[in-house]
Design brief:
Number of helices: 12
Radius of gyration: 19 Å
Helix content: 40-55%
Strand order of the largest sheet: 3-4-2-5-1-6-7-8
Strand content: 15-25%
Oligomer: single chain
Structural class: alpha/beta
Largest sheet: 8 strands, mixed
CATH architecture of one domain: 3-Layer(aba) Sandwich
Distance between the termini: 40 Å
Number of strands: 8
Shape: globular
CATH topology of one domain: Rossmann fold
Length: about 270
């Protein structure tokens, strides 16, 4: 089972939007996928149009009030399920995070999911706090969204340093799949400068080819409480970006060997 940690050193970069749409794209690619919400604010549930903390989830599993299989939310795609954060009182967020990061709690929950899913997408809270660190310790791969603005670029080293430290001290199998540029605006000079810096200054392969633009379609999808692919009968063209991203990431997670490439297939027969 592949555990993909979606984490960023900065909030407001589109982490939950990417987690939600990417999870559905993985499912469409034939992967049994779970989107697991670790953010106590409940951003995944809110993005799906649910009332604030409307359904039980991770918090109830941790307290023993609910069994894990009973709180997995099924979706219209049979390959995709969602585990919401649950009913976390805003006044007890600190206690929830402390409980989640205590010992092997998170890794134990993930262990119960093995055999049931091919990919688990962990939607982390903003920043590099204890929850994100624990997710990295339990994960197999990392995807970090980077907002196309100078402050995010200047702080990118923070998440890269954390990934390196976790890999060195706790989880030697952790792999950085790449950095994905989000909220890119080609009409803004600063946004273009950030993109150029990423492409020219960072080692090849770290910066993913897929770019998530700043687009009002994302706001409309949130308003409708649906991922892009399901917001209307004819999905907006923007939804194809996540199919492309899912394909790219799956190729990186399970790269094909030379033996698997059997050469070109003739067009004419």
């Amino acid at each position: 089972m592949h555990i993909l940690v979606v984490a960023s050193q900065k909030g407001g970069v589109g982490k939950t939007t990417i987690s939600l749409n990417l999870g559905l794209a993985f499912a469409r690619a034939g992967q049994r996928t779970l989107i697991m919400e670790l953010d106590a604010q409940g951003s995944v549930g809110l993005s799906l149009g649910l009332a604030d903390r409307a359904r039980p989830g991770l918090a109830e599993v941790m307290t023993g009030a609910e069994a894990l299989p009973d709180v997995l939310q099924r979706t219209r795609d049979p390959q995709l399920q969602v585990l919401l954060v649950g009913r976390v009182d805003p006044a007890t967020v600190g206690g929830f995070e402390e409980a989640l990061t205590r010992g092997p709690v998170l890794s134990g929950i993930l262990g119960q999911l093995r055999g049931e899913f091919d990919v688990v997408v962990l939607d982390c809270p903003a920043g590099l706090g204890r929850v994100t660190t624990r997710a990295l310790e339990a994960g197999t791969h990392v995807l970090t969204p980077l907002q196309a603005e100078p402050l995010a670029l200047r702080s990118l080293g923070q998440i890269l340093a954390l990934v390196d430290r976790v890999r060195a001290e706790k989880n030697t199998s952790l792999t950085l799949l790449g950095v994905i540029l989000s909220m890119f605006d080609r009409q803004t000079p600063a946004s273009l400068e950030v993109a150029e810096t990423l492409w020219t200054k960072f080692p090849g392969g770290i910066i993913l080819d897929t770019i998530i633009p700043r687009d009002e379609t994302f706001l409309e999808a949130s308003l409708r409480g649906a991922p892009l692919l399901l917001m209307q009968k004819r999905p907006p063209p923007l939804s194809r970006l996540f199919d492309q991203l899912a394909t790219d990431l799956l190729d990186r997670i399970e790269p094909k060997t030379a033996e698997e490439d059997d050469g070109p297939i003739p067009l004419l027969v």
